[in-house]
């Protein structure tokens, strides 16, 4: 494969790196050295257009063995334990091995003679932050690297942190799984996180030599793997099935996987360009989360203050609710004299809306109405013997069928909602009246045979006639509910009129509390605004590197 040279300093990569450094400096000025450090790492990688291919997955999935096989040299430990407590970076170039420690700086090794010593560092997550190995003669060049990350299923939290802390430097992720553990939940959770961050993700199902064909044919197994990830809405960029124990296995795609890595390296510049932009934006989001964490104590104190203030009808945590209540209280203070008129208008509007939207007649109603109307036409008769009695019984039956249908529709589509609306009206104006509440629930609109008969008009029982009759019944029922509702509204209005004289003082008290709440929300908004301003400032800086 031809050697890919680094871009000249004034290329797009160099400009992007300068932009990332300026954004990192801004983060550092904001006191966020950790995220700034990540962004400076990203800048260094960007300036070299360095491609990082990260190997993630179960510690038992054979990541280290796979990397050693791909490289053709045993650089990584491959014991069946969680080997790398930190990230090991391998790239091409002249032989060198470096361990970046937390307290003792950089320690160097000879990769030919001191690899066992290096391997001990590679598993010591307490003192080592990063291990880097350069080795010639592999498919990697000095601008292409493999990252071996700790097993994501390790019980050691430090392993997970180490893996996640390296993801901003990963341009492509190879996620390896043991054949027997593909559908473990952590696989789905972790790969979904990667895809949500915009990372190209390739899945490698390793150790397929464990497959027993007579239990399940391999094509069905592969289909089950793809379906499992699709169920989680995870769509990897490719899936490879490999066996290092049986290189001649019929389903082994090791060679195709190896070819993919070579192709990724050939496409280095495009992959890196897309990846570093995405990673920089993700680090901006991380920085905003740091700022939010820093503001957490101040935010908590303000929110505790909100929780300590109780005002009827107001959700103290809801900014819009508090603002609306404050505006309403200020408006009520100025227009208290017209409050009852406005209240009446509003309540009547809500009642009208409820009645207008209530549907009372359906197909079953039309059928029952048609049957009922036919029984009321002159000359209607049923039976031969005792025809008069049977006719009256049939008329009564059809009448009751229509009444039953209407009562059912009214109960479910109108009466319940009517009483719910009427019952809450006093609460809207901070009133409690048990007698009124009882009157609401005692409201009854009787549907009788006389009511049905009163809406019959002359004419043939056509479909149009039945439809008009049903509309008349619906309007008649709504008219009775409207009358009952207006009478209830009148009760509420009279109580409001009695309160107007004393509400001026109460409104002032309410206003005082609402203004206090509004001030707390203003302070919370200032915190959120500072976080948003930082995000926008950083996004503006990053835009210069687009």
TrEMBL record:
Localization: Membrane
Keywords: Coiled coil, GTP-binding, Hydrolase, Membrane, Nucleotide-binding
GO BP: mitochondrial fusion
Coiled coil stretches, renumbered: 288-346, 486-544
Record's keyword annotation contains Iron: no
Dynamin N-terminal domain ranges (all copies): 53-206
Gene Ontology MF: a single term: GTP binding
Primary localization: membrane
Pfam families the UniProt entry points to: Dynamin_N (PF00350)
GO CC, alphabetical: membrane
Alphabetical list of SUPFAM superfamilies matching this protein: P-loop containing nucleoside triphosphate hydrolases (SSF52540)
InterPro entries: Dynamin_N (IPR045063), Mitofusin_fam (IPR027094), P-loop_NTPase (IPR027417)
Keyword Electron transport: no
Gene3D superfamilies linked: P-loop containing nucleotide triphosphate hydrolases (3.40.50.300)
Entry protein name: Dynamin family protein
Protein's organism: Brevibacillus panacihumi W25
Record lineage: Bacteria, Bacillati, Bacillota, Bacilli, Bacillales
């Amino acid at each position: 494969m031809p050697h890919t040279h680094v871009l000249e300093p004034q290329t797009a990569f160099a400009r992007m790196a300068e932009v990332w450094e300026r954004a990192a400096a801004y983060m550092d000025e904001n006191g966020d050295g950790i995220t700034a450090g990540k962004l400076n790492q990203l800048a260094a990688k960007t300036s070299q257009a360095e491609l990082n291919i990260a190997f993630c997955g179960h510690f038992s999935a054979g990541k280290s063995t796979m990397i050693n096989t791909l490289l053709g040299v045993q650089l990584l430990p491959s014991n069946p334990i969680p080997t790398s407590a930190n990230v090991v970076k391998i790239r091409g170039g002249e032989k060198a091995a470096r361990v970046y420690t937390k307290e003792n700086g950089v320690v160097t090794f000879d990769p030919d003679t001191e690899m066992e010593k290096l391997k001990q560092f590679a598993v010591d997550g307490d003192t080592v932050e990063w291990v880097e190995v350069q080795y010639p003669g592999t498919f990697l060049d000095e601008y292409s690297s493999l990252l071996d990350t700790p097993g994501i299923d390790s019980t050691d939290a430090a392993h997970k942190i180490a893996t996640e802390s390296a993801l901003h430097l990963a341009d492509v992720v190879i996620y390896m799984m043991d054949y027997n553990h593909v559908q473990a939940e952590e696989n789905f959770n972790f790969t979904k996180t990667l895809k949500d961050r915009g990372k190209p993700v390739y899945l490698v199902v390793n150790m397929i030599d464990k497959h027993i064909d007579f239990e399940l044919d391999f094509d069905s197994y592969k289909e089950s793997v793809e379906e499992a990830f699709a169920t989680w809405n995870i769509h990897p960029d490719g899936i490879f099935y490999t066996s290092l124990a049986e290189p001649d296995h019929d389903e082994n795609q090791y060679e195709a996987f190896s070819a993919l890595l070579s192709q990724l390296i050939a496409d280095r510049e495009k992959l890196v360009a897309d990846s570093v932009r995405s990673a920089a934006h993700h680090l901006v989001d991380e920085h905003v989360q740091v700022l939010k964490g820093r503001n957490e104590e101040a935010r908590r104190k303000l929110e505790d203050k909100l929780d300590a203030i109780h005002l009827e009808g107001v959700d103290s945590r809801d900014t819009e609710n508090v603002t609306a209540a404050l505006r309403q209280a200020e408006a009520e203070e100025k227009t208290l004299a017209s409050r009852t008129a406005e209240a009446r208008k509003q309540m009547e509007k809500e009642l009208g809306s409820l009645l207008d939207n209530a549907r009372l007649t359906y197909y079953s109603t039309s059928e029952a109405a048609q049957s009922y109307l036919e029984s009321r036409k002159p000359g209607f008769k049923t039976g031969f013997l005792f025809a008069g009695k049977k006719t009256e019984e049939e008329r009564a039956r059809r009448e009751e069928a229509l009444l039953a249908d209407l009562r059912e529709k009214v109960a479910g589509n109108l009466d319940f909602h009517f009483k719910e609306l009427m019952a809450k009206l006093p609460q809207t104006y901070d009133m409690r009246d048990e007698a009124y509440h009882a009157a609401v629930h005692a409201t009854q609109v009787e549907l009788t045979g006389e009511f049905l008969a009163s809406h019959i008009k002359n004419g043939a029982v056509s479909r149009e006639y039945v439809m008009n009759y049903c509309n008349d019944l619906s309007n008649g029922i709504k008219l009775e509910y409207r009358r009952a509702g207006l009478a209830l509204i009148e009760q509420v209005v009279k109580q409001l009129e009695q309160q107007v004289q004393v509400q001026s003082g109460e409104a002032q008290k309410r206003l005082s509390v609402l203004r206090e709440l509004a001030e707390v929300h203003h302070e919370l908004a200032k915190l959120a605004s500072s976080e948003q301003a930082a995000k926008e400032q950083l996004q503006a800086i990053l835009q210069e590197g687009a």
